[in-house]
Every structure is written in C-alpha cells, then in structure tokens.
Amino acid sequence: MRREAEITVIGGGVVGLATAFGLLRAGRRVRVLDGADSDLRASQGNFGLVWLQGKGAGFAPYAQLSRDAVALWPDFAAEVQEASGIDLALDQSGGYEFFTEADEFSAFKADLEAQEATLGNRFSHEVIPGDDLRRSFPEIGPGVVGATFCPLDGHVNPLRLLRGLRVAVTALGGEIVQGAKVEKVTPVASGFEMALENGSRLDAPRVVLCAGLGAAPLAAQLGFATRVRAQRGELLITEKLETRLPFLSSTIRQVDEGGLQIGGTKAEVGPDDRETREMMAGLAQHAVTVLPALADVRVLRAWGALRVMSPDGYPVYTRSAAHPAAAMVTCHSGVTLAAFHGTKLADWLEDTAAAPDLEAFDEHRFALSASA
Amino acid sequence: MSIASRFLPPPKADGTVCFTLDGEPVMARDGDTLAVAILAHTGAATRTTASGSPRAPYCMMGVCFECLVEVDGRPNVQACLIPVREGMAVRRQDGLRGLRHDG
Questions:
Q1: H-helix or E-strand containing A164?
Q2: What domain of life (chain B) (predicted)?
Q3: What is the ipTM of this complex?
C-alpha cells in the first residue's frame, strides 16, 4: 500500500511539477493534485523561453533569481531527461530582442545596462545597430532598427518539458492525481483537509500551493495575501520549415521540430483566453518586418493563453503566517524558473541550511502596499 | 462561415481537366479535389515527412495534412481542400518546405 504523501503540491503545471521534482530529489514522498482540463492551464500555452534578458532590471533579487535559474538549466534538463527519457530540446545558445522602434530600442538598452549593473560579470549583452545586424544576418528586414543579444538566453520544447516533468515525477515515486481540482482547504490539527470537486476528500500534513490562476480562492483559505491575475498573451504557430533560422529571439523562435512560434502579446483582459484578429495581425506584421522571407509562410494555429501575474509581476515564495505548513509558489516565468523550482527551492521548502534567501519574494511586500 | 459553405460542389458528370504531377500529364474529373485526382491516378506516396517517411492523402477533409503537395510553385498545399484545375502544375513534396529568400 502506498504510504501517505508527506507533501501535497496543489497544481500539476510546470511550476507544480518542477517543485514536486525537487522535493522528490530531496527524498520526500510527494503527491501532486492536477486539476481539470477546463482549467486555465498556462503550462499548455506558453512560449518555452529560458530567458534572462531584461528580467529584473528594476528589481535586483529577480535578476539574481533568473540568472541562477538559467545557470541551473543544463543540469536540470539532463536530470529530467534521465528520469523521464524525454529530450527537452534545451538550447541555450543566446537570444536576440529585435526592435522596430528607436525609442523602444533605447529604453531596452537602458534596462540591460541596469541588469548588468546588478549582475556584474554574471551577465553580458551586446547592443547591435540594425546595419551591423544585417551584415551578420542579411535576411533581417530593413525595418529593424537594432537588436540586443544575450549569450545566456535559450529555449526548450515547452510541451516536452511539461510531459518530461510529469513522467519524471512519476518515475521518482511521486503520485500525480488527475482530475483533482481542490475546491476547499480546511486547516486542521494534523495539517489540511481538502475537498475535491469530484466529491472525494484528502488529508495532507503539508501543502505547497502552485495552482497558477486557480490559486486565488485557495490562497485566501490558506491565509495567503497574494492574489494573482490573468494576463493574456497570444501567439502564432507556422507550418514546419526545413530551413533552420540562424537566430533565436523572444518573439520568433523555431522549435526543434521545425515549426515557428511567433509571439507574444500582453493584454489585461481578465480570465479570457480567446485570440483576437488585431493581435494576430500585429504578430504577423512584426514577424515579416523582422524576417521578410516569412511573408509566404503559413500560420497553422493561433491561440491565446493566460499568464499568471502577481500584483507586482514578480514571483512569490511565501509561507502562510496563519498556517506555517502551507507554502505558496507562483510566477509567470515558470519555464525559466523551472530549473530553480526543481532544485534549490526544495531546500527552501524543507528549510535546510542550504536554503536560498527568498525573503525579497515573500508576500508581505503586498501587505505593505496599496496594491494588496 | 456557414456549415454549407464548407462543402465543395459535386463533380460534374462528364467534364475532364488535365493537370501535371511532377511533369507527367494526368486526367481528372472536373470538380474533384486534387487529392481525389491524385489517388485516382496513383495510390503511391505524394509526400515525405521530415524524417523521409512516405505519405499519401488520408483523411480527405483538411485535418491530417498527409496530402501536402506543391501546387504551381506553392509548397504545403492541402490537396484535399482545393478542386483540381486545368493546367495545374503539381509536384510531390519531399520533406519540409524551406524559406524563400528570393521573394
């Protein structure tokens, strides 16, 4: 008979599964509760970037955390691949941000200077004027005023990451419960009692809330102040190409199987993941401006997906003041940070001597501000 | 789009058109889809996947993408979704399309 889990992770997306992976590696018995297919699953709609450029320009702890995560990725990917047998197609060969507006180019250059001031020799970047860029890549269009490049940026195949984590968690002895949408959490003397939507009940001595946009009602029940909101991003998927693009950018990337992803937009529209013609047209226009040869490449699919945003946009790692056996993890960069969640976060959740300092990400920052 | 408009008109009883498949002339019933015309002419593969695996028209309704061919120089055309036309130059498609840098 299976022994009762010591830690229950609520949420079976990239964040919850990576967190569970790390806890399993630390020797814990872990159960993951995955919700319903009708949930707003950010992990099934994301772009797959392992991206440092521009992260935390205005908040040093986030710049440091993102840098740590990017450095942890090669070993983490190898561990997930070893445990799951699934190749995540990790490629960290550097990435470009392309700009078609001079003022946006200047503003981003300033952001990267701030990031470099924070990270010192742990970060480097190049600023490339448009004509220099076209000398390296003649296929770049004349409408591109310039680009920035960071050699630490990369990407993975996002669907294989999700699947790889699921298989790895199971292979390491974790239990993933499907269709286990938690409706109500009640703190009790022995931990927590959970009522699921399907009518069943579960007990858990410790919980980690990683439920993405599904976290809001459960956060309140567990005494957390963090309230996440949805931010919509839209993206396009093209037909597969034999030609390998000579660059990776945050808006045009080619997955290992040949198709291009073109993204991504931002819209504050609440929990509405529909795609819009206006945003799709804008994405296509950007792609053709950057790379005119894309003009006759067809788009096969387009979708909207919802980012999980905390009030200030930065990750939250926090314990419940009212119920210390409950922790909450939420962020919108679940792919980039997966390597951190799958390794060092376990030390923080277990409160070991090696625990990283995550004080800057505690949710008390919301309690002290008007945005809470 | 109304449901009715998703259906192509039925083929005419006696009309014929001629197109070429890799340069070879092929007769087809006027009003058939290109995929039907290709299957009627040859059951052999008309494309290969990225890994070289052979494929021929399969679902005949725009879903499976096994019927991709090059039509009049345009790659990745779903042959099941277009009617065959007189003079159409069709080529089997091997592997994935490339990017065209001459356009």
A1: helix A158-171
A2: Bacteria
A3: 0.76
